[in-house]
Amino acid sequence: MAKPPILYSFRRCPYAMRARMAIAVSGVQTRLREVLLRDKPQSMLDASPKGTVPVLVRDDGGVIDESIDVMDWALAQNDPQGWREHRDDVLIAANDGPFKQALDHYKYPTRYDLDDIQEPRAKGLEYLMEIDRRLDGKPYLAGSAPGYTDIAIFPFVRQFSMVDSKWFAEQALTNLKPWLARLLESELFQSIMHKYPQWREGEQEADFPEAA
Ligand SMILES: N[C@@H](CCC(=O)N[C@@H](CS)C(=O)NCC(=O)O)C(=O)O
Fold first, then answer.
1. The predicted structure's pLDDT at residue 211
2. Could you tell me if the CB of 95 is within 6 A of ligand 1?
3. pLDDT in tens, 67-78
4. Separation of 138 CA from ligand 1 center, angstroms?
5. Over the stretch 147-163, which tens digit does the pLDDT of each residue have?
6. For ligand 1, atom 11: residue with the closest CA
7. How much is the average pLDDT of 126-140?
8. Which of 59, 61, 52, 58 shows the shortest CA–CA distance to 16?
9. 6-82+190-208: CATH number
């Protein structure tokens, strides 16, 4: 029998988080290799020279190195909560593109030679307000339970909220804040935030998801 695929992951990476959540909900078994971004394993770079996580390497040598594609790979095998029925590619593209850029500029202004964070933060807030509007009257974008879009974007909203949590708490995002809190408190999210030691070449991987 083929061995479970290898998943190169980094605990705090939002892309890796959404991939881990899709894998966890699908129940598809993988072998997790926890990566440090400043010390990437050679085997990961050999499989995917672009050097970003997550990377999934199948036993037959097939490589999937985009988080959305990892989500799709897992959910194509098993989608017990019907996540794929609630997928808004436009909102996800706005997250992965302009919102992620605003997040990076807000978080690391000096890295981008920016004098202040006002502009990127305001830009990010505009996106959050759009999500807030869409959440009007329902706990998740997908309705009463989370769906694909909720999972694909909330790890990035989490990061944005953590840059300056005091400022974030002061914003009038009355639907988005409880939405974020619900997702952060969910068993699913908790289960994918387990801490693994850095994996090193030759070492045994961790079973992911963990055996119940
Ligand atoms: N488009 C990629 C982006 C993944 C990505 O940029 N991951 C970051 C970590 S959150 C990374 O690995 N960056 C490489 C580095 O920092 O060296 C995906 O969706 O998987």
1. 77
2. no
3. 999 999 999 999
4. 31
5. 999 999 999 999 999 99
6. 52
7. 97
8. 52
9. 3.40.30.10
